[in-house]
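Field notebook, page 568. I keep forgetting to write these up properly, so this time I am using the form the group agreed on. The chain and the ligand, coenzyme A, are recorded exactly as supplied. Prediction of the bound pose follows.
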Amino acid sequence: MSLCRSSQQALRLGRRRAPPPSQRLPIRAMAGLTPPHQAAAISRLQTNVDPSSDEYRENERQMGEVTARLAELTRKMQRGGPDKAREKHLARKKMLPRHRITALIDPGTTFMELSPMAGYELYPEADVPAGGIITGVGVVEGVRCVIVANDSTVKGGTYYPITVKKHLRAQAVAQENKLPCIYLVDSGGANLPHQSDVFPDRDHFGRIFYNQARMSSQGIPQIAVVMGPCTAGGAYVPAMSDESIIVGEQGHIFLAGPPLVKAATGEVVSAEELGGGKMHSSVSGVTDYLAVDDAHAIVLARRSISNLNWPARSAPTQPPASTFSEPLHDPDELMGIATTNLRKPIPIREVIARVVDGSEFSEFKRDFGATLVTGFASIYGHKVGIVANDGILFASSAVKGAHFIELCSQRGIPLVFLQNISGFMVGTASERDGIAKHGAKLVAAVACADVPKFTVVVGGSYGAGNYGMCGRAYGPRFLWMWPNARVGVMGSDQLAAVMETVGQKADPELRARIDRETEATFSSARLWDDGIIPPQHTRRYLGLGLQAAMGGRNEVRAGDTKFGVFRM
Ligand code: COA
């Protein structure tokens, strides 16, 4: 996952070094002394991280390796299609899709790209960088919007199954967060050899237009900019939009292109005559504005957004800087705190201390169910409830998590889950203790909590722990992985052991395959997450996610959540 900025200055992330130990406040020593002005100090997380220790350095080395690999893969994905296709695109005087997005968003704002690793090593017959479509959240004329841009340098911008999935995911982000959609269309429609996997099912191509109709009916604006072909089913993207812009002599909309028309009816017609901008803007009325080139079309799209009369328009893109402070401890140190060896614990308070405003954390039930850390904090001035793993989930930790999620739901406070979980405790004692019903309380609370939820997988995400900690199936607004993270039913060793008990061979090949399938890049290629993020950018991504959740015509109302039956 990448953060693309339209100004270098805006790229800088706020970082502040931790104060020297002499200035750090001894929390325990202060217990009992709580005049109001010291309340914040009492909540301030301290650090025990020693950047000169061998363990820290080894973690940093390993994390550096996986992060560098991720950066290289991301660069490859962001280049788009092969050189030949990009040159052909530019020779047609078209802007490359990422340049279109940069021109579309407000200068100095961030484009929060979703799943740039989509499609990675997914199709044996072809590379489909970023899934052939670029999606994300960006600010246009002060309005936070979801942007969906076809990359026609990748197989003509045609829709592979992963392209459809990524387009639908972007629409889901728009719908949930109530953000206007801008579609930069440049696509040959369905990738025909994959037609059975993109066409008929519920979450296939047709769902794109269904979503457009539903979002429009909910007052979520739909704006299309036709900058290339828009063939067959694809023609419905502009046709279903509230407003459509087309580039003359470049954008084409038709249900069947000239070759098919000739075959079907014998009529010989040029693409421009059949579905060009001039015709659609003056004769058919399929489009509303005619642009002379990409740059002009982008200006028209910005103008359409400025006319939405969108309430968030005047809202600041960030709370004023004076309302929050950066973490006390350096987020770069997360590279020495995280580990690629998921058998080792990741001290989660050290992570929280580098993510939340001022490293302030009001911990809830600190000494009960201690393997789940819960508490209140703020991120860029947005109040959040943090639910974070610090070990295996026991009955007590699960019940505490459910209690805390109820509190946040009651108060309308968004939830941030920091996942590093190998699962719920197993064994006789645990079963007799009713771990299944207590774990179910946590899962039910997560499922029903009707406040924005955000998940960051900082280590392992295994088994039912994935459910209780708001995995993808539990509807987090955004789910990000750190590059060291892994997601799976269980680790490869445990899986091999189980397979052996059921009489199957568990050879090294199986283990290697399972290891590969649990990697973050494997997950991200399939859109099981919204992207892999460098640990030190976690705060920034959560901030952008919170802004997206709060930026639309969206109200988080306290007490909206209706919980089901909790088994006691
Ligand atoms: N399915 C699968 N592959 C397709 C495709 C489709 N619908 N349309 C194009 N491609 C492939 C081409 O074979 C080519 O592959 P290659 O790079 O391996 O040679 C690549 O995409 C680029 O196509 P090309 O025609 O060279 O590029 P272009 O920019 O000149 O034209 C299109 C792009 C999309 C306008 C043109 O290819 C086209 O009209 N395709 C058919 C569109 C169609 O009828 N779709 C039906 C959708 S329901």
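OBSERVATIONS:
- Residues 4 and 61 are 26 Å apart (CA to CA).
- Residues 152, 155-156, 158, 188-193, 229, 231-233, 257 surround coenzyme A (CB under 6 Å).
FOLLOW-UP: compare against the apo run.
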